Amino acid sequence: METQGSTRLNSRKRRKEGVGPNGATETDGIPLKVPRNCLGLREPAPFSDELEVDYSKPYIRVTYEEALRGTPLDRPVRVYADGIFDLFHSGHARALMQAKSLFPNTYLIVGVCSDELTHNFKGFTVMNENERYDAVQHCRYVDEVVRNAPWTLSPEFLAEHRIDFVAHDDIPYSSAGSDDVYRHIKEAGMFAPTQRTEGISTSDIITRIVRDYDVYARRNLQRGYTAKELNVSFINEKKYHLQERVDKVKKRVKDVEEKSKEFVQKVEEKSIDLIQKWEEKSREFIGNFLEMFGPEGALKHMLKEGKGRMLQAISPKQSPSSSPTHERSPSPSFRWPFTARTPPSSPASLSRNKSTITYDISEDEED
């Protein structure tokens, strides 16, 4: 024990390279935990009547302080927790987890009451005793299962299973003519309290099923169960089938409504996009039109430039007054081919030039 204590003290002084849960390290005052029995993590927990117990060794209970400090590996703290465990749920698992985590080195024994005891003292169960045994066996926190556990714990039972502490919630459990079946355990200093998980219990689950009975009956009918297996009458069976068809029609109508809403929404989005694009294009078209045909548009400038060029081309160039005058050379005469007569002319020209038989065209006129 001294060697183990010194080793634990030295291990606390050494600092880990990494950190533990929530950033804690060994130097933060967290008690060193001994590796627990991991049998339940690899295979189902065994039944107590299938294990061999060496009764030659004396059974000496450990105190609560000794259990908290930690016990040797070959002497775990034996904690007992009992219950019905009908419809095994997370509340049961959390209670067993708390019982397993009470001490650094814990061996958890779980007692499960039989159908006969449960029906006499508490009421009818959904699962039979074998199903409840098997459910508890496969919980990872359980090391051993006691079948047909007693309703009230006797000293003989505690000694037979070498139990050090009994784990249960601290609320008084009145049953079997007693206001608290764990009173004698608490008075003996063997009680280790745990916390109940609020919002989940076997009674709550059964209440949900009873409250929504029609829903679950229709659900199982759809899954292939017969009305006889569900204890449903012929009329109720037809009613459930009719309700199922009505629900299918409602679902189809709802799907169509949702699809139509999506379609209308898509059309509205596309129409908005088209209107925005049309407005942009119309603005661009109007801008281009005004730029070309407006009061100060490009067309007006083009017409002004063309008019100026035409006037410049038509008007003759004036020669400077100081430049010498040159006599224009006579333009060559042009004669109409294939005829000796001149082209027709006005009567005034005929009277002036009766003797002329040629028609002259100057170079300027020809241009």
Automatic annotation (TrEMBL):
Keyword Plastid: no
Coiled coil: 239-266
Entry keyword Magnesium: no
Pathway: Lipid metabolism; Phospholipid metabolism; phosphatidylcholine biosynthesis; phosphatidylcholine from phosphocholine: step 1/2
Cytidyltransferase-like domain boundaries: 80-208
Short name of one Pfam family: CTP_transf_like
Keywords: Coiled coil, Lipid biosynthesis, Lipid metabolism, Nucleotidyltransferase, Phospholipid biosynthesis, Phospholipid metabolism, Transferase
Entry EC no(s): 2.7.7.15
Biased composition (Polar residues): 315-324, 347-359
InterPro entries: CCT, Cyt_trans-like, Pcy1-like, Rossmann-like_a/b/a_fold
GO CC entries: endoplasmic reticulum
Region described as Disordered: spans on this chain: 1-30, 313-367
Function per UniProt: Catalyzes the key rate-limiting step in the CDP-choline pathway for phosphatidylcholine biosynthesis.
Protein family according to the UniProt entry: Belongs to the cytidylyltransferase family.
PANTHER family tied to this protein: CHOLINE-PHOSPHATE CYTIDYLYLTRANSFERASE A, CYTIDYLYLTRANSFERASE
Name by which UniProt lists this protein: choline-phosphate cytidylyltransferase
Organism from which the protein derives: Eublepharis macularius
